Amino acid sequence: MHAKGWLLAGCLLLLLPGPVFSADEEAPTIPRETVCLQCHGGMEGRLGAPVGLWKQSIHRQNGISCHDCHGGDPTDFAMAMSPERGFRGAPEKAEIPAFCGRCHIGVKDDYLASKHGRALGKGGPQCVTCHGNHAVVKASPDLINDKDCTRCHSFERAARIKAALADTDHIISGLESDLADLRRLGISVKKMRGEVFAKRNEFHRLFHTVDVNKVHQGTAAVQKSLGKVATEVAGIRSDLSQRKLWGGIAIVLLLVAGGLCLLLRRTYHDEEGKG
Ligand code: HEC
Ligand code: HEC
Ligand code: HEC
Ligand code: HEC
Ligand code: HEC
């Protein structure tokens, strides 16, 4: 190819929308092998079961392993479960909110102040009643269902909370998939993703108050912040379609210019030939 051809190809490449790789790809943090996993993985029954269940959990996906919850030394076979190395063992039912709440502080506070929290140890549910212990998955309003919520009382009050959560949950999932689309196009959405993630957590936490009025108040505030992100996403979308349009026009112009150059050059060569 001539120099001009290379130049043209270069120009065309520059006009392609955005880089093809993602600007803020994060590597997943799968926990390393530990002595806890090695020893318990080879056991049967109640001592081995947690390993398989945990493997499917959101905790594993986020690098939270046995010792992060139970304490102990994950590098030393002999001392692994020694209290000297911080081993906590398995918590009693009434201790579970404090056990999980070391990391989920906001949830723990909302829960303890709620009617559920105040009934802890007196027939009320705790974290594991609703989320399970080892196979904890991403939280969603599906956890509020006829089967799990009618073990202690009627579903009627559960249904009112679920309805109060449904709309916002829909907005959040919509935004999450919009941001994933933009990210695939190579646009950095880290800040917006951070905001949606924080609002998502704030929102999903509201449930633990089990108080319809508090859920309504919190929902209004969360929806306002989400609205701002939605506006930003819409702005980027329209920028992108304009960029595509102008990119297209520029390509056509370049092609025309390239054609003209070739023509000019040919005429010039022809004249040279004649002269
Ligand atoms: C060498 C094998 C071995 C290793 C290593 C090991 N465990 Fe255990 N674990 C056991 C056995 C056996 C039991 C049951 C007897 C007991 O409670 O001491 C047990 C019991 C437990 C229990 C239940 C305790 C209770 O109160 O019922 C937990 C929780 C636990 N292990 C977590 C861990 C964690 C976390 C680690 C790593 C820091 C770990 N284990 C490392 C063999 C092991
Ligand atoms: C998210 C925190 C968390 C993680 C991570 C976790 N556990 Fe547990 N584990 C618990 C809780 C809470 C209980 C008490 C469950 C209950 O009473 O329902 C428990 C109970 C246990 C028990 C006692 C089971 C019984 O039936 O007596 C064992 C054994 C155990 N865990 C081992 C493990 C091992 C091995 C791992 C890693 C694969 C692990 N746990 C990871 C929270 C966790
Ligand atoms: C050592 C810290 C730690 C402990 C202890 C812990 N978690 Fe987690 N948990 C995390 C992290 C980190 C995540 C992933 C980030 C996030 O989603 O907040 C997570 C995620 C979750 C989620 C999903 C949240 C979502 O975004 O949908 C639930 C539900 C959950 N944990 C429940 C529990 C329960 C129940 C316990 C106690 C049995 C527990 N956690 C103990 C650290 C912890
Ligand atoms: C009565 C059932 C119930 C109990 C008890 C309960 N949760 Fe939840 N939890 C839910 C439901 C339902 C959602 C999701 C609500 C939604 O989608 O808006 C949720 C959401 C969550 C989330 C996601 C929100 C966030 O901040 O990331 C975490 C983490 C969590 N729960 C942890 C806990 C912990 C820790 C406890 C104990 C202190 C607990 N839950 C007690 C039902 C429960
Ligand atoms: C282990 C038993 C148990 C389970 C399971 C349970 N609850 Fe409750 N719930 C209680 C108790 C105890 C109270 C407080 C006493 C009362 O009002 O009856 C309560 C109260 C409530 C209230 C009223 C709060 C208020 O301020 O008036 C709501 C709403 C509620 N629960 C929703 C749910 C939902 C949703 C689920 C399922 C995700 C659920 N509960 C699962 C035991 C339970």
Write the layout of secondary structure elements.
Blueprint: H1 3-15, H2 35-41, H3 45-55, H4 58-61, H5 66-70, H6 96-101, H7 105-113, H8 115-118, H9 127-131, H10 146-149, H11 156-184, H12 190-206, H13 212-274
Helix pairs in contact: 1-13, 11-12, 11-13, 12-13
This protein binds heme C (5 copies).
Q: Could you write a compact summary of the structure shown?
A:
With 275 residues, the protein is mostly helical. It has helices spanning 3-15, 35-41, 45-55, 58-61, 66-70, 96-101, 105-113, 115-118, 127-131, 146-149, 156-184, 190-206, 212-274.
Written overview of the protein:
The protein is mainly α and 275 residues long. The protein has a domain of 88 residues. It is built from 13 helices and no strands. Helix 11 runs parallel beside helix 13. Bound molecules: heme C (5 copies). One heme C binds next to helix 4, helix 5, helix 6 and helix 9. InterPro entries: Multihaem_cyt_sf, Multiheme_Cytochr_ET. It comes from Geothermobacter hydrogeniphilus. Keywords: Membrane, Signal, Transmembrane, Transmembrane helix. This is Cytochrome C.
| Overall form | elongated
Estimated helix fraction: 55-70%
Rg calculated over all Cα atoms = 29 Å
Please summarize the sheet with the most strands: none
Strand content: under 5%
Topology pattern, helix = H, strand = E? HHHHHHHHHHHHH
Mean pLDDT metric: 86
Organism: Geothermobacter hydrogeniphilus
Signal peptide: 1-22
Keywords: Membrane, Signal, Transmembrane, Transmembrane helix
Transmembrane segments: 245-264
